[in-house]
Predict the structure.
Amino acid sequence: MIFGDGVNIDFLAIALAFAVPAAAAAMSQGKAISAAWDGMARQPEVSDSIGGKLVIALAFPEALGIFGLLLAIMLMGKLS
Amino acid sequence: MTIFEFKPEDQDHHHGDEHHHDDHHGDEHHHDDHHGDDHHGDHHHSACAHPEYELLNIFNWKGIGPKGGTVHTYVEEQPWMPAFWKCSGPGSDPMGEISMTMAFNTFIVSGILIALFKKGTRKIEFLPGKAQAFAEIWVDGLRNFFASFGGEYVATKYFGLLGAYFTFILSLNLWGIIPGFHSPTANINTTLAFGVVGVIASLVIGLKESGLKHIIDHWMGEPEPGDGLAKVIGAVLLLPLEIVAQFARMISLALRLFGNIYGGDVVLAVFVVLLADIAVKIWIPLPLQLPVLLLHILASVIQAIVFTALISVYISGFCSHHHDEEHDHKH
């Protein structure tokens, strides 16, 4: 689909396929990090244990953002 | 014959010449089909009229080498390159079939690792040499590290699996930073193999540790012995979900690692080409991709940690009678 003088709206799909999962992943990771650091500030003696668990917990939203990136790259190979 | 000679005006000349245009893009069926259906004969508004978009698509970068082909054709034309190098590079399909390059790089890395740790452990001495000291520090540090994820029991008993996974994945991720080599983990085949083997290993360990009956009971939500309704609900609703979750674990492990390493490679390549484009114009090469490279190294380490930590969490979820406090980690 073409808008006006050669603006291809297909590329909007690529941009959204990356941007929407990235925004959602960033928001959820921010929540997890803020909660974990709150806990660490309250109890510094367990910060090692919390940090290790935080890395695992961050992997799940991260994966969704990465899926979006993969989808964007694949769409880019198909469209352009 | 600069490598990154990208000429937007070259493509504009093809608009009036439809035959030439089709030759130029003869191999891109998706492109031709898509635009042929919607805007037949309206080549001025096709994606080719906007080369700034094409610049971002590393599969179609043209003007590389003296013949002006893509990255892929340039690599294929090199007579001095051995065959196992040729079917890879940024132009190849990372989600396609297994390439010889990937297998070759994997074997080099595993050979180096085997030689290194063989040297460190062949003759154990009370006062360690360099190789033995490295092996001791590496193994002890990793064991303590995994103990914080999956518990002391799992980290000690199954250190063979976890330590080998971490060392191998980390080496494969960082291998692509050396010029001339490619990360085998930037190919879906490698990471899918890792994911499948890791999840199946965790299932086998779970069978050995707690037995099939305990695993099924755990997957059914651990109903009370006399509660028939809870058993039916667990068998009908929860059990299929947990079985599907095992496959989801394999795929998500594989795609997470693959996406991070491949995405990092693509971002690096895009940065290098864009900056080369700038460098040609202003005659000053700027290594501005360095921060991206540092970020890629960080992501490589973190992904190796995450992959191994998730497998150790899966294992400790099956060994729950040793570690009741690790229950809340289940995926």
Observations:
- The first helix of chain B runs from residue 8 to 12.
